[in-house]
Amino acid sequence: MKNFQIAMISLLCLIYSLPQMGRVFADAVYDPSTNTITLSHLLAGDGSNQTESIYATNIKITASEVRSEGLSWPPFIHPSPWPAEIDYFDMKNQELTISYITTPDQSIERRNIVIKIGSVLSFDYSESIAAGVSDFRFRYVLDESLPIEWRNEFEQIMTNLQRDIPILAKPSWYSIPIFAWKSDTEAPLPFIRGACICGGGEGGSFTWMSLEISAWEFENDAIHRYSVVPHEYFHVWQKSHAPDVMEIKWLSEGAAATLESIYVQEHYSYDYFSSAQEPNLSNQVIQTPSLYESYDASGGDLDVNYSGSVFLTLVLAKELKNKGLTETQAFRKILKDFYLLKPDSKNWKNKFEEIFLISTDSFYEAVRQYEVSYKDLLPSSKLKLSEIFSN
Ligand SMILES: [Zn+2]
After folding, report:
1. Considering its fold, how many domains does the chain have in total?
2. 209 alpha carbon to ligand 1 midpoint, in Å?
């Protein structure tokens, strides 16, 4: 957090020394002289998989009512290359959330204003997105330091993921930018680093996906330069169903890292489980599995590259198969059905027992009987994400 604040201060200085130059994006603008609002990008949906959504650009509207005035926001979160925000119209209650809005002279900047639309005056373009199709909007910012092959592959991976594991936009979670760059060049913004779903700032934070791709991974043809994409994508999916469960480490990271390995097995025939996750597996994972519920308690050498978190996930799949589930059914329960119960950091043990029909204590007891190895736990090469996530 401390680093973030320092980064913010240095960024603020940078913006003040380069007036206007950073503002190449287009966000929502309120023009007091005509009393109109121009939204650069708008998504309209109801958060369900039953109704089509609409995506439109350059929409001019009037407001009939301001439901929430939002927050005023210092002008430092939106420097170039931060991409234009998307606004969300909730078709259920007919409310428009404007992510970020300015006046033409930028004397006012606010975020998360909620209004009722008076009338729609005009728009440039619109498309409908069929019911059930992924409508969560990712805004790519792919730095030129990345080879064109990587950028093309990234877009293909995102297409595959959005097809196989759709994310349905909802008023609280409908869009994030993705910043990707090669580690030997400067980060696109000073406060963005590493590979994560990150956020920060005072007065309510913005959220983004950061993909800092190590230069070493290009030199060594390491599959992680691609596998990090499904890993972080799955965190976005998890957050759309159970944002709070991200705090339970082995459930959150074990699932994301397992999905990452299933993805590269399916698409590159590469065994990332054995080559990158299993090494460094610690004995602690069978001695005290509950340590892996916490980032702090399973830090250091205990969970390098989530080796232990993935182990617990694979053991859970094995236990479910022992009860008669097919492999696809077992992984569907772990990677999908559990989240649909909306577990949170307080009720997750009850939800765990409800979906897996075993208490966490009994599961940890079962874990203690396993060898510290992935050997008999690896998913078969037939396992497909599209089948795990099918309805
Ligand atoms: Zn993760």
Report:
1. 3
2. 11
Q: Which of residues 202 and 357 earns the better pLDDT score? A: 357
Tell me the CA–centroid distance for residue 128 and ligand 1, in Å: 32
State the DSSP string of 191-253.
T--SEEEEEE-TTS-EEEEEEEE-HHHHHTT-THHHHHHHHHHHHHHHHHH-GGGGGSHHHHH
Cα(208) to ligand 1 centroid in Å equals 14
**Torsion sign, CA atoms 150, 153, 159, 164:** negative
For residues 306 and 258, give the distance between their C-alpha atoms in angstroms, rounded to a whole number.
Answer: 9
Residues 199, 301 share a domain: no
The residue count of the chain comes to 391
Which pair of structure tokens corresponds to residue 313? 């996930």
pLDDT tens profile 189-247: 988 999 999 987 654 568 999 999 999 999 999 999 999 999 999 999 999 999 888 88
Residue-wise pLDDT for 144-179, tens only, equals 999 999 999 999 999 999 999 999 999 999 999 999
Of 100, 129, 158, the last residue of a domain is 129
**Within this chain, do residues 386 and 282 fall inside the same structural domain, yes or no?**
yes
Q: How far apart are alpha carbons 26 and 24 in whole angstroms? A: 7
If asked whether residues 94 and 178 sit together in one domain, one would say no
Structure tokens at 297: 């308690």
Cα gap 103→115, rounded to integer Å: 16
CA of 120 to the centre of ligand 1 (A): 41
* Torsion sign, CA atoms 325, 329, 335, 336: negative
List, for residues 255-294, the tens digit of each pLDDT value. Answer: 999 999 999 999 999 999 999 999 999 999 999 999 999 9
Q: Are residues 247 and 214 in the same domain?
A: no
Q: Note whether 306 and 252 are within 8 A (CB).
A: no
The pTM (predicted TM-score) of the whole model is: 0.91
Q: Which pLDDT belongs to residue 387?
A: 98
